């Protein structure tokens, strides 16, 4: 399938479907000699796996990874690495009653128009289940970035119209929605649980902060660092928008307000979000993404079936009432892949 490969120097290809036997990823371009083990990757997998709490899907996947190649005696070999996760809690029969109907908000219609057929079992390749493979690859990229002194942190800042008012990094992994404000987190959880009880869902906003990136990383014109990050984020099914630094607020600012002035110590502000001209400035790279409400809801909706007949549909099954808590590690993973790929591009440029 075209479109399943991402990256230039650090290249990843994901495979598998939501209710198939397994999902996984092949990673090519990993620096040889990197100390790595399955336990390190598993930490990130456990952050994304389903069935974690009352605000995530009850599907029980342990997401236990297996590294099938590219690792020898605890070190990367530099050859392609294959990481696979078996699916263990599939229930494709949950879709039998609606397999001929196009679910609102899903890629059912578009996949069928493109390929002439579709996997109706939980969206197949279009399912959020595919992101498990991304998180595995992102963990490897994160390990590479650690050697460069680069860190990547994402966190929820808004859910269902409830916004964080404070930023407390230590609180992020201590609440069910991975919010940076523990007080707002409690209200967010109540909101999600209320909507879930009514069969509905909600969206939110996740912010990502990348620290330690050297100035000069990124390519000009078509491969700008912010453009590559935007593509990475928008390739995640639930993401519908992205902004960097001041973002859309720049529309109401003056040039004298938005420009990041400098003194001998560096930039005085970071309205550009750490990227100017598509190249990193050395300041933190900061962006925010819009996460849409989960499409699978048990509220009665209007649709049509594959024969053109108007129908009413209720999507049963096990689904996240809000995607924000589990999308945080996916966003971090994709950010790690982009940044490491661009470091490798820069190294290749300097070797020319």
TrEMBL record:
Domain of life, per lineage: Bacteria
Alphabetical list of CDD domains matching this protein: Chorismate_synthase (cd07304)
SUPFAM superfamilies: Chorismate synthase, AroC (SSF103263)
Pathway involvement of the protein, from the record: Metabolic intermediate biosynthesis; chorismate biosynthesis; chorismate from D-erythrose 4-phosphate and phosphoenolpyruvate: step 7/7
KW 4Fe-4S (keyword) present: no
Reactions listed under catalytic activity: 5-O-(1-carboxyvinyl)-3-phosphoshikimate = chorismate + phosphate
Binding residues for FMN: 125-127, 277, 292-296, 318
NCBIfam families xref list: aroC, PRK05382.1
The name this protein goes by in its record: Chorismate synthase
UniProt source species: Cohnella phaseoli
Protein encoded by which gene: aroC
């Amino acid at each position: 399938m075209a479109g399943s490969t991402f990256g230039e120097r650090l290249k990843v290809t994901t495979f598998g479907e939501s209710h198939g036997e397994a999902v996984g990823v092949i990673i090519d371009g990993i620096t040889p000699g990197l100390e790595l083990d399955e336990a390190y990757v598993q930490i990130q997998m456990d952050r994304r796996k389903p069935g974690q709490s009352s605000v995530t899907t009850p599907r029980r996947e342990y997401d236990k990874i297996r590294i099938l190649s590219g690792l020898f005696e605890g070190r990367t070999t530099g050859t392609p690495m294959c990481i696979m996760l078996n699916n263990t809690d599939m229930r494709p029969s949950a879709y039998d009653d609606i397999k001929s109907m196009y679910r609102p908000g899903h890629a059912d219609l578009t996949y069928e128009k493109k390929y002439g057929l579709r996997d109706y079992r939980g969206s197949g390749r279009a399912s959020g289940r595919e992101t498990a493979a991304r998180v595995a690859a992102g963990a490897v990229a994160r390990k590479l970035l650690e050697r460069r002194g680069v860190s990547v942190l994402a966190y929820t800042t808004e859910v269902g119209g409830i916004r964080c008012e404070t930023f407390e990094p230590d609180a992020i992994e201590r609440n069910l929605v991975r919010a940076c404000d523990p007080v707002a987190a409690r209200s967010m959880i109540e909101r999600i649980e209320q909507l879930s009880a009514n069969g509905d869902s909600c969206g939110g906003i996740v912010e990502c902060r990348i620290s330690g990136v050297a100035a000069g990383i990124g390519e000009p014109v078509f491969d700008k660092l912010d453009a590559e990050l935007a593509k990475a984020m928008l390739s995640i099914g639930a993401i519908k928008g992205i902004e960097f630094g001041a973002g859309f607020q720049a529309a109401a600012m003056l040039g004298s307000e938005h420009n990041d002035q400098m003194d001998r110590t560096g930039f005085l502000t970071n309205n550009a979000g750490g990227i100017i001209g598509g190249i990193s400035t050395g300041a933190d790279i900061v962006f925010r993404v819009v996460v849409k409400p989960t499409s699978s809801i048990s509220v009665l909706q209007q649709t049509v079936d594959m024969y053109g007949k108007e129908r009413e549909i209720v999507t049963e099954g096990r689904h996240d009432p809000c995607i924000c808590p589990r999308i945080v590690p996916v966003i971090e993973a994709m950010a790690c892949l982009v940044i490491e790929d661009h470091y490798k591009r820069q190294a290749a440029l300097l070797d020319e």
